[in-house]
UniProtKB/TrEMBL annotation:
Taxonomic lineage of the native organism: Bacteria, Pseudomonadati, Pseudomonadota, Gammaproteobacteria, Oceanospirillales
Superkingdom field: Bacteria
InterPro entries the record matches: CSD2 (IPR040476), NA-bd_OB-fold (IPR012340), RNase_II/R (IPR001900), RNase_II/RNase_R (IPR004476), RNR_Ribonuclease (IPR050180), S1_domain (IPR003029)
Protein name: exoribonuclease II
Organism, scientific name: Zooshikella harenae
S1 motif domain span: 570-648
Gene3D superfamilies with a match to the protein in the record: Nucleic acid-binding proteins (2.40.50.140)
Entry EC number(s): 3.1.13.1
Enzymatic reactions: Exonucleolytic cleavage in the 3'- to 5'-direction to yield nucleoside 5'-phosphates
Keywords assigned by UniProt, alphabetized: Cytoplasm, Exonuclease, Hydrolase, Nuclease, RNA-binding
Length: 649
């Protein structure tokens, strides 16, 4: 046994050796494998062996030294934990004999974490829970956790919704300060609306068109033909900025939420329902405050002039997309013609305006492809009872055209009046894919100037060329997969995906905080007041908030979709190829809009992937985007929540 002097000498030797090592700060890369990698602060990626990987979590900040193995390959050895971002997380309780673990739902983390019996808080095997790390694995390689709260058991109704809400920290309750402000608004709302000094447009036959279940109606429409030709189109947008003061409790909470979240059959609103469903909603028969965008539209569909102003409006009818589509499509015994004959001329004028606007956009901008949408019918347990497939209806296209026209008019107004606002820009083809896209377009459209693709407006030019040219390859789909995402910006910029010189949105201020902020800017400009400052940090917050909302909705939907498909294993469906990669194809079932992967790696002859044309072929079979194929559901992986498909000969 070593004496104290020897131990002290050994300790000093270790410290001396450590001081002589070159130590690097690094971040653990997210990996589902047992071994992994770290990314040094200088950008180098270094292998992290399995025994070292057991000491850390993904994204941990650590100090490492670099070593060389017997084959001369660099690997990292952990010296110290700097910081760990993994504190609380959600997951599912797993029982193994007398031991209890939690399987974390964290990125690609693929390890169970031990929970001591006295830290279970009543949770049982199978329960979905929220946990907290109590022992990091840096020293022993064995992490521990405790249960903070029990979300529910898999058999509970709407457990998928409740779990994802907890996982992403979506707020269902309103702080007391927010409730107090709402009560104060309710107490004086009618008097404030009555006394508001605004243009009175309550005599016009406004109407709203939304889904049957919609309560937060933030836009109303009116259109009429002009004697000199063309139309006068008015779009009234609800004005929550009148009720919500900047930096108030309501404003702070709305900014924190950033957007309403739409889960299947459940909405988590940005604003309390008393506002979103009542005082800010353009409910029929009630006078409400709004910002009106008034546009003169030529017979060719060009918005030749536009004006924004504050007004009072009163909707005469709350109509559904289905009901308006039935009327416009000539369905007999439609409810609109029977119940609201006085507003039929307005609907007719709106359809004429939509036709003209869409034709103009087709010629001068970029129109959306009319791909099918899918909506879920849920049972009392929150499971999918049926999935309904439909293309955008006549009424959907009508409302969409009016909203886009109003948003473009708002963008023009802001660009003319102020140097800073909130715009939505889209830069076009991704820089790392630009050379490939140019090469592909040059091969398929030899007369097209591919240098145009280096500019945002190049995508618009490409789409116009494709509208007048027939090619055997789904070029539009291929290029659309290579586009950047749209982003918020403080200055107006080209929106490549829509083909507009500048674009913004102000038509959903009840549902999106960026639209609410734009209302404040527009009102300040109309009243010649100082303009609210918009910081870049706010744009980053809004981008992150909207991304979280999308992720939350997608996760619930994917979970429910996989459950829906569990009893359809071995059944055959038609599907459309939506992605091709070196390993196989991702196909979307035409009936349900559910994606599944067809693994082609074991097929003979071997498939060769062409990244330029995004297709794969083995000489006997070829698969490309938008191709229709027949597939069989071979398995449903509920753990990873994905679908596995096989080809049907």
């Amino acid at each position: 046994m070593l004496n104290n002097d020897a131990l002290q000498q050994l300790k000093q030797l270790k410290q001396q050796l450590k001081s002589q090592k070159e130590i690097f700060n690094a971040t653990v890369k997210d990996s589902g494998a047992k071994s992994g990698q770290v990314i040094l602060d200088d950008g180098r990626q270094i292998f992290l062996p399995q025994e070292e990987m057991q000491k850390v979590f993904p994204h941990d900040r650590i100090k490492v030294t670099l070593c060389v193995d017997s084959k001369g390959q660099d690997f990292a050895e952990i010296e110290e934990l700097i910081d760990s971002s993994l504190s609380e997380f959600t997951g599912q309780i797993i029982g193994r004999g007398k031991a209890v673990f939690v399987e974390p739902d964290v990125g690609r983390l693929s390890r169970w974490i031990f929970i001591p019996p006295h830290k279970l808080s009543g949770a049982k095997a199978g329960d979905f829970v929220r946990c907290r790390i109590t022992q990091h694995p840096i020293n022993s390689g064995k992490p521990k956790a405790e249960v903070v709260s029990i979300i529910g058991h898999p058999d509970q109704p709407y457990i998928e919704h409740n779990y994802i809400i907890d996982k992403h920290g979506l707020d269902l309750a309103w702080p007391e300060a927010v409730q107090a402000e709402v009560e104060a608004i309710e107490a004086q709302a009618e008097a404030l609306i009555s006394s508001a000094d605004r243009k009175d447009m309550t005599d016009l036959p406004w109407l709203t068109i939304d889904a049957e279940s919609t309560q937060d109606m933030d836009d109303a429409l009116f259109a009429e033909a002009l004697a000199e030709g063309g139309w006068l189109l008015r779009v009234a947008i609800a004005d929550p900025a009148f009720w919500i003061n900047p930096e108030s409790a309501l404003d702070v909470e709305a900014r924190k939420r950033s957007t309403s979240v739409y889960l299947p059959k459940q909405t988590i609103p940005m604003l309390p329902e008393s506002l979103s469903h009542n005082w800010c909603s353009l409910v029929p028969g009630e006078t409400r405050l709004a910002i009106v965008c008034e546009m003169k539209v030529s017979e060719q569909g060009e918005v030749v002039s536009s004006e924004l102003y504050q007004a009072k409006v009163r909707s005469q009818a709350k109509l559904s997309y289905d009901a308006v589509s039935n009327y416009l499509d000539g369905v007999e015994e439609n409810s609109v013609a029977a119940a609201n004959p006085e507003i039929l001329p307005v609907i007719d004028s709106l359809q004429q305006v939509q036709g003209a606007l869409s034709a103009y956009r087709e010629q001068h901008a970029v129109c959306f492809e009319n791909r099918p949408d899918y909506y879920f019918e849920l049972d009392e347990h929150g499971k999918i009872a049926a999935i309904h497939r439909q293309h955008r209806s006549t009424a959907n296209r009508l409302v969409e055209a009016c909203m886009i026209a109003a948003n473009c008019a708002a963008a023009e107004f802001l660009a003319e009046k102020t140097s800073k606002a909130i715009y939505i820009s889209h830069s076009g083809v991704r820089s790392d894919r630009l050379d490939d896209v140019k090469k592909l377009v040059a091969e398929l459209l030899p007369d097209f100037d591919t240098e145009a693709l280096s500019k945002p407006e190049g995508y618009r030019q490409l789409i116009h060329s494709l509208n007048n040219t027939s090619v055997d390859v789904p070029l539009r789909t291929i290029v659309s997969r290579q586009l950047e995402r749209s982003l918020f910006s403080l200055e107006p910029g080209f929106h490549s995906g829509m083909g507009f010189e500048r674009y913004t949105t102000f038509t959903s201020p009840i549902r999106k905080y960026n639209d609410l902020v734009l209302h404040r800017i527009i009102i300040a400009l109309l009243e010649e007041q100082s303009i609210p400052e918009v910081a870049v940090s706010l744009l980053d917050e809004l981008q992150a908030g909207q991304q979280k909302a999308r992720f939350s909705a997608n996760e619930v939907e994917q979970w429910l979709k996989c459950q829906f498909m569990e009893d359809k294993v071995e059944q055959t469906f038609t599907a459309t190829v939506v992605q091709v990669n070196p390993f196989g194809v991702l196909a979307r079932l035409d009936d349900f809009g559910i994606d599944g992967f067809v693994d082609l790696r074991r097929k003979e002859p071997k498939f060769a992937y062409d990244p330029l044309y995004q297709q794969t072929s083995n000489g006997e079979q070829q698969f490309m985007l938008d191709q229709s194929i027949e597939v069989k559901v071979s398995a449903v992986d509920m753990k990873r929540r994905n679908l596995k498909l096989t080809l049907v000969s």
